[in-house]
Amino acid sequence: MRVERLSQDKIRFFLSMDDLMERGIEKEDIWRDIPKVHELFNDMMEQAYQELDFEISGPVAVEVFALPAQGMVVVVTRGRLPSPNELDELDGDDMYELEVTLEESDQVIFQFHDFEHLVQAGHRVQPLIGSVGRVYAYRGQYFLVLDTDMENQTLQKGIAVLSEFGEASTVTEHVLKEYGKTIWAQEATGGITRYFS
């Protein structure tokens, strides 16, 4: 489980399939009000406090992005902090109110910190998944977008390779198209292997 700060009041967790399996949690469980999901959320908040000094009380918005074959990304945004008087009135169970939304994606999007990592990933993944995908440049990083309409085992192998060079991203292709620059509009992995040997 990795956590990073996105802004003063917003953090992002990446939960791998292994993180979920270790706790006996299925993707569908995130919606259910069950003890192991509460335990997971408490562990996440503890890690956020330890690593980022990010403390939560009061209203919290939780966005869950289910990533095919990768796990999920959880974005936690805290609302205003309660006043000391309001804090006294809260009991332990009311320390935070959750508002959870879930989005399932039919795409896998990986981000790479530099172009060389993208090129290396393209060379390694192209023999496995063929000439597919689209590449965008956005905020100084490179994004490879793959549709998940390929055989699941092929997709799993591709994700495993891409994870060595980049990381799963929650930026949507809509944002990349709108605000980023299109590098390859189609067959990106084929283009990478053709032009960068």
From TrEMBL:
Domain of life the protein comes from: Bacteria
InterPro entries the record matches: MecA_C_sf, Neg-reg_MecA
Gene3D superfamilies, sorted: 3.30.70.1950
PANTHER family named among the record's database cross-references: ADAPTER PROTEIN MECA (PTHR39161), ADAPTER PROTEIN MECA 2 (PTHR39161:SF2)
Homology family: Belongs to the MecA family.
Designated name of the protein: Adapter protein MecA 1/2
Organism from which the protein derives: Melghirimyces algeriensis
